[in-house]
Amino acid sequence: MSTANPLDNVIWNALTTRQAEFAEGVDQARRFMPEVTALGAFREPTAEGYESLARLLREHGTVAVFLDNPYEPRAGWKWVAGAAALQMICENGPVELASRTCNDAKMIELGAADSAAMLELTALTKPGPFGRRTHELGTYLGFRRNGKLVAMAGERMKVPGYTEVSAVCTHPEHTGQGYAGILMAEVMRGIRERGEIPILHVRGDNLRAIALYERLGFSTRHRGYFALLRKESVAHVVSS
Question: How far is CA 130 from the centre of its chain?
């Protein structure tokens, strides 16, 4: 797994550069602090890499990893969930300035006081791993209607020159209002104002989301996989 480009092995590169303050590490593996997000990575997907990653987890702990190839069964690990995934990048497409109001809902910046509402929305919509401290990774914006958080988007992984747009989600009762596109455009504007390039990751079968991202100027850079893995006990046979 080459690391010549910071977008290759992006979780590892985030945890060893711009987001090292959120990292826990053992030898060839790193992970975000569990309360931040479930993402983790190894320098290389070798036996040594998996062993290092296992040492970071408690028994039956889980971690989400990005892989170039489909996950293959390994002793000591249980595959919980996963799918093909796209890494998309927005290098040239212009993003119009977003309106901060939409259908009587006002865009707000989210923070620690909104953590419970963010967790509730992401638990319902499942945009990807999200923890009680994920909002600390960057700017998060949302729309509230009648006091309830109905849509959000923000920044997650950061590597030199790039920031990931993440946690794009809308409450099922409020879809079709354009919230996701408006929030993404505003998050992307902020990223570009820092001289960085927006990226994102999306399930390969989420065609509706991919279509939105393409309208905003994203194109596919890499096709890979994500896997949610659980550390399992390994039985050791003692020879007599």
Answer: 8
Question: Which residues on neighbouring strands pair with residue 106, listed in sequence order?
Answer: 101, 144
> How many angstroms separate the CA atoms of 21 and 154, rounded?
19
Q: Which amino acid is at 71?
A: Y
Confirm if 31 and 23 have CB atoms less than 8 A apart.
Answer: yes
Whose tokens are 């390969």? That residue is 204
Q: What's the one-letter identity of residue 106?
A: K
Mean pLDDT (whole number) for 18-37: 96
Residue 155: CB atoms within 10 Å: 23
CATH 3.40.630.30 fits 89-221, yes or no: yes
Supply 58's token pair: 């408690």
**pTM (predicted TM-score):** 0.90
As a whole number, mean pLDDT of residues 20-24 equals 97
pLDDT at 240: 36
114 close to 135: Cβ distance less than 8 angstroms: yes
CA-to-CA distance for 157 and 15, rounded, in angstroms? Answer: 9
pLDDT score at 106: 83
CATH number for 10-84+225-231 (one of 3.40.630.30, 3.40.50.300, 3.90.650.10, 3.40.50.720): it is 3.40.630.30
Under the banding of pLDDT at 50, 70 and 90, the label for residue 237 is: very low
